[in-house]
Amino acid sequence: MINKIKVKDLVEELKLEVVCGKKGLNRRITSKMFSRPGVELAGLFDFYEEDRIQVIGTKEYTFFHWLNENDQLERISKLFREKTPCFIFSNNFEVPQVFIDNSEKTKIPILRSPKRTTQLINDVTTYLAEELAETINMHGVLVDVHGVGVLIRGESGIGKSEAALELLKRGHKLIADDNVIIYEKEVGTLIGKPPKLLETYMEIRGIGIVNVMRLFGASVYRHKKRITLVVDLELAEDNREYDRLGVEEQTIKILNTDVPYIKIPIRPGRNMASLIEVAALNRRLRYMGFNAAQEFIDNLNKYIQTQQDEDDEE
């Protein structure tokens, strides 16, 4: 699924001033890229990316004032196309009247930011990359445990939210409960966040909906987190084999990214929160290059080899 955002979303997120063209704030933004129309101001429109946000920075603003009045009128009118979502002026530049006239005519918003051009472009690029990335919705709970983004999955009613609630009481953080929106910032980097309607809320069976920030304080919530471990909770089966060493790391593919993956069997009396906490810490150690399972195997092999050598000497 590809997100669709509107100009008004950009205004709200980046705290931009709407100079004119308020009637066009519902225009769709479809391109992740922005454009700085310097070449177009010079008169070349063969390569004009009209479907992109147009950023007017110091260079464009300065060059515009070098043009004579006729060139200003002609070239600025050509910038305002049907697919153009908006114009953004950096540095709190005063918007020339010719831009305002075309904005009112075409209902294309003109926005303004106090930030320097480079910082403005960084903010716009980051926001568009996240909001227009391909996303999927996944049933589960996303928590930040010791800095590790853990996506807890399992059948409905198995205890995902209850385990997450115990983790929050231990000082860890909730990102999303029940419904996790996942997008790929780049291949190898998955980010999870909640739907806006569900931010800070959890559903606990028998209790109902609770607001974790009001219960435990602002420190137990963050609005997004990179997913670096997927934990599946499932009812334990007596005749099923479970990994008891963990030498070979399993992964699961989400979008185009492989994420480390483990299964934890549930039995009466097992503390799910403690197990998830240990799994997160173990994942963190592996990221740092330490593999406890491999260390155990190496020590075992050394012990066996030592015993064999002693037997040969006898």
Mean pLDDT: 88
The strand line-up of the biggest sheet is 14-11-10-8-9-15-17-16
Low-pLDDT segments: none
Which word captures the global form? elongated
Major sheet: size, sense and barrel closure?
8 strands, mixed
- What is the tally of beta strands? 17
Number of helices: 10
- Category by helix and strand content: alpha/beta
Order of helices and strands: EHEEEHEHHEHEHEEHEEEEHEEEEHH
**Strand portion, in percent?**
25-35%
Rounded to the nearest angstrom, the radius of gyration is 27 Å
> How much helical structure, as a percent, in the residues?
25-40%
Termini Cα gap = 69 Å
Would you give an account of this structure?
With 314 residues, the protein is α/β, with parallel strands linked by helices. 35% of the residues lie in helices and 28% in strands. The strands form four sheets. It has an eight-stranded mixed sheet. A five-stranded mixed sheet has the order 2-7-6-5-4. Helix 7 (160-169) packs across helix 9. The longest helix has 22 residues, at 292-313. It is elongated. The termini are far apart. The model has no long low-confidence stretch (mean pLDDT 88).
Summary keywords:
10 helices, elongated, 314 residues, 8-stranded mixed sheet, alpha/beta, 5-stranded mixed sheet
Secondary structure elements and pairings:
Layout: E1 5-6, H1 7-14, E2 17-20, E3 28-29, E4 34-35, H2 38-41, E5 53-56, H3 58-66, H4 69-79, E6 87-89, H5 97-106, E7 110-112, H6 117-131, E8 135-145, E9 148-154, H7 160-169, E10 173-186, E11 189-193, E12 201-204, E13 208-211, H8 212-216, E14 225-226, E15 229-235, E16 251-254, E17 257-266, H9 272-287, H10 292-313
Parallel strand pairs: 4-5, 5-6, 6-7, 9-15, 15-17
Antiparallel strand pairs: 1-3, 2-7, 8-9, 8-10, 10-11, 11-14, 12-13, 16-17
Helix pairs in contact: 7-9
